[in-house]
Amino acid sequence: MGGELLNPTPIKTHTQVFEECFPFYLAIGMSYAEYWEGDCSLAQYYRKAYLIKQDEINRNAWLQ
What we know:
Blueprint: H1 14-27, H2 32-37, H3 41-63
């Protein structure tokens, strides 16, 4: 009672987070080498481009 945590969230390592996100970046066209060996800011640009494409798809669907 009080300050105890009922279900503490397990802490993930950076490697675990990167491994969980990897399939998403593969699906949006990023290569293995770009993801693991390339500049880390490249992943941000891929995600931003993906969001822009999704926004355009949603806008076109709304117009129809």
